[in-house]
Design brief:
It comes from Candidatus Brennerbacteria bacterium RIFOXYD1_FULL_41_16. The protein is α/β, with parallel strands linked by helices. The chain contains 14 helices and 17 strands.
Amino acid sequence: MANRHPARSARTRESGNPHNPGAVLQTWPVQSETAALRTEKKTVLIFAAHNVFGAGQNPAPNQSFGGNMLSTQTKRTTCIGDHLFIVEGAKHWALYDLKEETLISIDLDSGELLWALAQEASPSEEKLVFLTKHAEAIMELAEQSGIADRLFLPDTSSAEAIPLLEYLWLEVTDQCNHKCIHCYGDFCIRLKNFMKLEVAKRILSQARAMGCQWVQFVGGEPFMHRQLWEMIEYAVELGFPDIEIFTNLTLLKEEDINRIKAYNIHIATTLLGHNAEVHDACTQIPGSFNRWYRNIKKIQALGIDFRIGVVRMQQNENDMEEIEAFLRREDLLVADEEFEPDDVRPTGRGCNNAVEPRAPLQYDFFFTVTPQFFHQARKSNPCWRGEMAVSAEGKVFPCVFSRQTTFGDANQDGITPAVQTLQQQCWVITLDNVDRCRDCEYRYACMDCRELSISSGHGLHGRQPRCQYDPYSDE
């Protein structure tokens, strides 16, 4: 059930990362002369500037290491050592240790001091002596956090070069044999749009030429398209490293499953209930659960790579424990893999109030603290960057959920102009451009979803509604 999507796979929780247990959010507890602000959730380093510099005197602005210690409206980011960066927020700073994939929360005064030291051209040894003499608590805690030997050294972290286009959703048809009550695309059996084979081949060829690594064939239900396998085989010929089919599994034949195995194709599917009563009520197709179960077990038996998404809505929100138990009992969710349902997206039929869960899911903080993610997040949107979706009608969207605005016509122009438009209008939206997020110290470790902001009425640059963290809080 783990999301194989490369852009989302290495997620770090505040309490730890199931993919990398070392990636955690830490705080610096303070002893002796410094004061500590203690809450139920965390302990944050707090001390006044006059305690840092000693004798109640701050250095004058023109003194070495002093600088201007006043906060500015523009939230700052700077390197303070090898694989070490600090990012300013409204009430706190965050120290990003990109080597150990760790976040450390620090207070404003500590951040100001480290920022000022980082701006000085003095040798690193002098800065360490200064910390030892005037801010012993910071130095001790840096040693406890395992970063002291890298403080103020030249940074060697870097991000690998990435393709212009990384991920492509190819909606080969809008026709579907299900009538799922939450469907983001309003897909159903009455729709008759099928992507032409030559159009699909041109899109695939152009995408691969741009370095695209991942393509998902999706619908509607992709197995409604009679030429689906010709499209997939062409993607195989082009050398796409990661090919996935998103399917409800109900139309698969033995021949299809054998081909999936032969071509090493990945499967993505959705489970809406732990039994036929719940699942079929959501798909509105009797027998859909039994057909789904029969084919997922065949796929499992052949060792085909698969992932299962669970969409949480009003009709199944009270069944999450039973769904998780079912998945684990059937070995469809392995022991060390977390159960991560996703609330229905408010788009398409998902906008219906009768589908929206009565109690929204409370999401944990997810952080990714790697050189690749950090450096990329400072320049581009952590979700949309490098992604595009093409509908059966040739319309180009930033992703399969964001369907309000069209950014190109693949039937007429191919995808090259659309990629340029997406790059200029969507991919460049960093969290520095987003309300509230721009004041958050974790903005370069956090995943984003512009579509959730748009569909929830907050606009293109509005806050992501599922985030519960308040950067303006003293806690």
